[in-house]
Amino acid sequence: MPSYDLIVVGAGPGGSVTALTAAQAGLRTLFFERGAKPGEKNASGCGLGPRMWREFDFMAKLTPDVCPSMREGNAIRHHLVDATGQVAARMMTRPTASVGYSPATRFITMNAYRSDFDPWLASLATTAGAELRCSTLITGLHHKDGRVAGVVDKHGTVYRAPIVIGADGVLSTVAREAGIRERWKRDEVVLVPQLDFAVEPGRIDEFLGDESLACWWGVDFPAAYQVFFRDGFHIGLGNWLDTWEVDAMAPLRRVVDLPDFQRLIRVLRAEPRELQVHLLPWLTDPGRTYGQGVMLVGDAGGFPCPLEAEGVFQAMETGRIAAQVAAAALEAGDTSQAFLAEYERRWRASSTGVEFEAGVELARIWRALPFSPERNMSWFIPMVSELLGGIFDWSEPHAVRMQQVAHQLRGYAPDALPFFEEEVVPLLGAVYGDEIRELTSWRSMMRMAGIALRLRRAAKGRP
Amino acid sequence: MKLDLSTLNRWVPSDEDFIALNVDLCVGCGACVRACVARIWSLDDATDRAVLAPDYRQRCLECGACDQVCEVRAIRFRYPPGGTGVVFEQG
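The joint structure predicted for all components is written out below.
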């Protein structure tokens, strides 16, 4: 019966960073992948954020010779689509002056197919001494004397270790077998169909410049994301399992059928190449992430960002913390649940944990806006389009146009003001605390109203 | 754009079942049919209960949504044996 210090189930980014960190700490580490190689079961998480480069020195070694699909981009294009399917407004954003470090100033995301990225990351772990077993499905935990003592594969082979880390994704066997989670509630998990299109290398750069991502915001579909690689792109969109009323592909087909999307396909000479779909935990808080002899990292632990559900960086960061806590537990000879509570204390203090401090408010606003197209995007998109487009036309003298725009905007107020109060103010409150509560208090409002009145009187030359 | 999604992916078909349907528990709500991107679920015209396509092992995209949406737990999804199932080359 093979015996190790640490067993990691899963060789995605979370599992590989766990195995790498553990191997570097001198632990005899075994990690498992159910696919024939890492990365062939993943279906998303392909826009790698700059925080990875800041937190993990090894990311500097990611180059096109080991990851041919990688392509960095420094712009996001937003398409606002109205009820007729027309792009009513469009804008592009880049890292702003307040972005404080490189490479965040250089790229918004580094896009790489996970089928390239994951094998590279796993190779760092095996080079450091961890042992990788592919084509192996772990089906259960091995217990001895009432304690977790390893894992069991599909063929009944037992692999022993005093600590098991579940990096086995959204449908985590480790979480289930450890009694942490039987399955997700329907409002905790989103279903994300995604289409990959092939594009001749160079053509995306030629036509889109350094565009990295595109977001398609609609009044009759949940927000869709588009990620551009060296030789192709993804278009995908998700929604909670309790909100699908028609078939899950219908909103994605709606986006692909938009005239502007079709034009993009023609310009890029893009060809549909692969259909992917995955579940994604999207939580306001990860909840329980450890048990006796067990820790959960990445999607298995429910760590994707509460705002937009990006999860690769979070998997890597929680993987590193879990491996460090495992090393400390083995050193202390204590793998109890009480000792492993240190894992939660540490991830809560990490970049991943800080994101969840405003988790409820971040998740709420995202659900209320891009994922409530009929309720809120139906006024939000016309309102933003009016703001952006209303000024730039020559149908009337500009002063007249400004009055017309203001009149039109007032019409959106009955929807926009309650939304601001119910969704935006709580988020600002969660982020800025007392500062913003003071600003949005009625006293403060009255004070500002008083200042505005005095300014107006002064402008008109009255006392 | 006419998209034929059925021909895009590659599979190493499993020779074992990895989805179990307990048809006696099924109430015919159709949630599995709506959630399934791979279209391996349908409702039987006569019984109004869920039917799993016989060739699902070469069509399933392994998201597990059918299991997650089934309120009465009539569907149990487990991953196919190691090294089998769908292979994403641009995941």
